[in-house]
What we know:
Elements: H1 17-28, H2 32-40, H3 48-75, H4 82-90, H5 92-125, H6 132-149, H7 152-182, H8 196-201, H9 212-223, H10 242-269, H11 271-276, H12 280-289, H13 291-326, H14 344-364, H15 367-396, H16 411-430, H17 432-458
Amino acid sequence: MSALPSAQVAPRRRLGVAHAVSVCVGMVIGAGIFKSTPLAAAVDLAADAGVLALWVFGGAMSLAGALCFAELAAAFPDPGGDYFFLRKAYGAEAGFLFAWSRFAVIHTGSMAMLAFSFGDYLAAIADVGPYGSAAIAAATIVALAALNLAGLRFGIGTQLALMFVVIAGLLLVGGTGLWLASAATPAAPSAATLGGAGARATTAPAFSTISVGAALVYVFLAYGGWSDAATLSAEMRDRERGMRRALVIGMSVVTALYLLVNWAFLHGLGRDAFVASNAPGADLMRHVLGVPGEVAIVGVVAVTSITSMNAIFIAGARTTYAAARDTESLFHLRHWHAERGTPYRAIVAISIVSLALVALGTYTRGGFATMVDYLSPVYWLFLTMSGVALLVLRRRYPDAERPFRVPLYPYVPLAFIASSVYVFWSSVAYVRTGAVVGVAVLAAGAVLLVVLRALGRRR
């Protein structure tokens, strides 16, 4: 007889470095890299090298953050990841609000956004009708939820396989750029002379340059998500070095791939056509391989969306599980299935909210843009707080066992905190409406916390 679900069963250490790397890479590399690169390339810098320097800076600061999280995860392993760090540093209220923001905005909003992206790409090569994209989005969420409910072995195994497909797709784009450079082939013609996605891009007015701060919002958006791998810290077989190796390897792979892809776009399309394009990957592949190349890159973008969504189910459900474990009135969500190794009720809850956001996006026809607006300020606010939490917990628990310590402390954490504050400020200045919505969502979470505590006292 299979083991019954139990709220008392804790996660077991059964994951290796490769599994955590797959979650880290999968959470970072999504469809965003194909959408954010042209926007970041519009930065007010004359040289192409300046554009690449922004991506180097983004990778370096993300690696600094990964090192901070590696220490926190090794010293305080917990399925909640940065939820647990924030709770330990600032108290239960801050931890709950962070878990709420992930549940109501960051994870579920990203899930719906990626699902729409996947549906849109499939709709671009197949006639699925006016509501086909939404139907595909909803079906994808349901399918991935079922996959993760089947057990950790299925969810994490799929993540590992999908990661290699994503890397292969980005290497294909980078290889195309290298081939163009080595063959002395001229850059791809401007979007005006291309068919398909490139031609559609030309109907937009000429692009205008943006500030470095605004460009970094897009750069860091593409790098976002690496912190979610810390939610696996309580399940790593190697407690001392596992998370450090996973985060460092994961971010090094991501940074190298991002530099390769941006270099390929800049040299294969040319700066002007790159910035003007809505689908630079499709434009570049069509120039070299024709329609089959365009279809291939659409497939890669679709796979990246599914990979990120699957990683959200793995990491996001664990944050919800951890918050429910610590909040008495949410005990229904804190059940962990002993045999399957999954927080199964948290997975179901995330699925329901994500499907509701898909319905909202379908109704408003503007769900994707609205979610992008308010994701960045909320995400960077809490990521800044997580960086500061390292300093707080070092001082508060000086004798805690720390198998790994951030090198060059406190300079590396301070650099990460400073960059996070700057990107948070830039995102607020750039998406003012989104900042207001994010504050409203956090306020709703605070009201919910008061209600839950009142119910708990009555019980």
